[in-house]
Amino acid sequence: MQREVNRQLYLDYIRGFMVLLVVLDHSMHAYSQNYSDFWFMSDINRSTLIDVWHLHNDAIMMPFLLALAGLFVFVSLERRGYIGFLKERVLRLGVPFVIGVTVVAGFVAYNKAVIRDGILKGFFDFWWHDYLHWENSPFENFIMGSFWFLYYLALLTAAVLILNLVLPWSLRALGAGMQAVFRRPVAGFITLSLISAVILGASDMVWGAHWWFGFKPVFYLRRARFLIEGFCFFLGVGAYFAGFFKDQDLLKRLSDSWTAWLLASLVIGGLYTTYTLLYFYDGAYDRGFMPLIQEGDWSGVWTYITEGQGIYPLIRTTLLGFYIMVLMPMYLSLFAKFLNTPKPFWISLAACSYGIYIVHEPLALWMHVKLYDLDIPALLKFAISGGFSLGVSWLLVSKVLLKIKPLRRIL
To answer: Which residues have CB under 8 Å from 104's CB, separation 6+?
Structure first.
C-alpha cells in the first residue's frame, strides 16, 4: 500500500508545482520585456530575464496540467461511477467557474480599470454597476481570467467520456500508442514532438500566436494553444489506458533517466528561448500567413514559406513542440527520482494548489498596480509580486478556505 501511495505522490507534487508556475508567471507578466503587452498591464520596469522564464512556463504549465487531468479521468470514473463522477465534476469545475467569473474575475477587471482607465470608484460600486452591469446588458463586461481552464477541462472531459461510450476502441488504440512510447521513449519523444510541431505550426499559421477566440461572455480559448493543450490531455488519457499506474517498472525507468531528460530539456529549451527572443521582431511571430489562409491562397502560403518570412514562425513552433514534449518527461523523471516521499512543503502545496489557482490572479494584478509607480528593478518587483501572490493565496486556502467544509469538498 505504501508503495502505491508513493507512486502517486510525485504526480501530486508536479500538479502543485505547475500551479506554482502559473502563479509566478502571472506575477511576472507585467515585467516581461517582450510579453507584457499581452497582460492586463505593462510596467515601466521590465527585464529580458523574465522573458526567459516566461517562455519556459508558457510552454509547460497548462499542457502538463491538462495531461495530468487526462491521466486521472478514468481513475476517478472507476472509483465514482458515471453519476458520481458527473456530480463531482459539476462541483469541482462548475461551481468554481461560476463564482470565479462572477466574483474573482471582477477583482481582476477592477484592477485593470484602475491602471488603464484611472477609475476612482470603489470596488463594489465598479463590480455592481460596471462589471455585473445589472441595469442593462448584464454579464456583457465579464472577463474569463484564469477560469478558461475549468470550462476547457470540462469540454475535454465530456469529449473523452463520449468517446468511451461511442468509440471505446479509439481509447484502447490511444493506449496502444502510448505503450509504444513507453517501450521506446526516444522514438516516442521524437514522434510526439513532430506531431506537436505540426499542431502548433498549423495553429500559428491560421490564428496567430497570442490571440484568443470564443463567444461572450467568458467562453474564450487561446487560439494558438487550445489544440496542443487538448492533445496533451488525450496523451494523459492514453497513458492511463497504456497502464501507467500498473507498470511496475515504469517508475524506475523514469526516475533512472532523469539526467538524460534534463540535459535534453536544457539544450532544446536553450535553442527555443534563444531563437524566439533573437527573432522576436524579425519573424518569429510573423503573421503573414493569416491573410493568405483566410483568402484560400494556398500557393501563396507555400511561396511565403519558401521565399518569404514564413519559415521563421515555423522554426519557433517546431522548437516549441519539442520543448513541450521534453519538459514533461523531464519533470516526471525529476520528481519521480527526488520527490516521491511524503514532504510537508509539497504535501501542502499539492493540497492547496487548486484553491491557489482559483484565487491568485487578483492578488498578482493588485500588486502590479501597487508597484507600478515604484522605480525599482523589474526582478525585484517580480519577487515582491510573486511572493505576495503565492504566499497570500496559499495562506488563504490552507488557513481559511480548506477549513470550511463545503469549500473543502470543492477545493
So the answer is: 145, 147, 358, 359, 361, 362
Which pLDDT tens digit goes with each residue over 99-128?
999 999 888 888 888 887 778 788 888 888
**Residue in this structure with the C-alpha cell 500538479, named with its chain if needed:** 15
Q: What is the residue-wise DSSP string for 145-170? A: GGGHHHHHHHHHHHHHHHHHHH-HHH
Which residue in 402, 397, 329 sits closest to 363, CA to CA? 397
15 contacts 62 by C-beta, under 8 angstroms: no
Q: What is the CA radius of gyration of the chain?
A: 22
d(CA 24, CA 31): 12
The dihedral formed by the CA atoms of 292, 294, 298 and 301, expressed in degrees to the nearest 10: 30
Please state, in angstroms and rounded to a whole number, the distance separating the CA atoms of residues 85 and 78.
Answer: 9
Query: Which is nearest to 328 in space by CA: 221, 229, 241, 225?
Result: 229
Residue extents of the structural domains in the chain: 2-410
Place of cell 499559421: 205
pLDDT tens by residue, 292-349: 888 888 888 888 888 888 899 999 999 999 999 999 999 999 999 999 999 999 999 9
- What is the spatial distance between Cα 137 and Cα 55, in angstroms, rounded to a whole number? 38
| 349, 14 contact by CB (below 8 A) | no
The residue to which cell 452591469 is assigned: 133
pTM score, two decimals?
A: 0.95
Q: Based on the number of CB atoms within 10 Å of its own CB, is 66 exposed (0-12), middle (13-18) or buried (19 or more)?
A: buried
Find residue 214's DSSP bridge partners: 220
Cα distance between residue 11 and residue 294, in whole Å = 42
- Taking the C-alpha atoms of residue 154 and residue 52, their distance in angstroms, rounded to an integer, is 31
